[in-house]
Amino acid sequence: MKSTASLFRALLAVSMLAGCSSYRPTPAAFHEVLDQPYRLGAGDRVRVTVFEQDGLTNTYSVDQSGYLSFPLVGAIPARGHTAQQMEKAIADKLRQGYLRDPDVSVEIDRYRPIFVMGEVGAAGQYSYVPGLTVQKAIAIAGGFSPRANQESVDITRDINGKVMTGRVVTSDPLLPGDTVYVRERLF
């Protein structure tokens, strides 16, 4: 009976300590989004080419509301759409009384920035480039501070309109708009 009570107290203590921990495993959607086509968001800049229409061919930014303001047709929803979906949307709008058979191409000119904060040399906003990993982003931000936890970092990412935070290793890839937080080590 005494050993059962001791075991119960030990399990209770362990469960209470586990409840104090702020660590949660990375959600599955966190890594699944890496294999999906890139979706536009506020702060992205795209190069739209309308074949044989120099007046419409230009670089356009996605505004804070998630719209692309395009000549002749006005605001076109861009947030959450791929470049191919934007090509179709712009062509469809131009077909409505402006051009007979528009040939539209959309490519990403500049991705929205990433943010690095916490125990790094120079926390701040940095340009995203394809292939950027957590380790490279930390290097761009001046490297780890002497107190930094170099094992893993927390990344906050917007996935289909839902903001999620997960703990990842430094070799994980980043996406445009991610926020990297380097924690302080305990010892």
UniProtKB/TrEMBL annotation:
Coiled-coil region(s): none
Keywords from the named record: Signal
Protein name: Polysaccharide export outer membrane protein
Alphabetical list of InterPro entries matching this protein: Poly_export, Poly_export_N, Soluble_ligand-bd
Residues in Polysaccharide export protein N-terminal domain copies: 35-108
Signal peptide: 1-18
Chain ranges of the Soluble ligand binding domain: 114-164
Gene Ontology MF terms in the entry: polysaccharide transmembrane transporter activity
PROSITE patterns per the UniProt record, alphabetical: PROKAR_LIPOPROTEIN
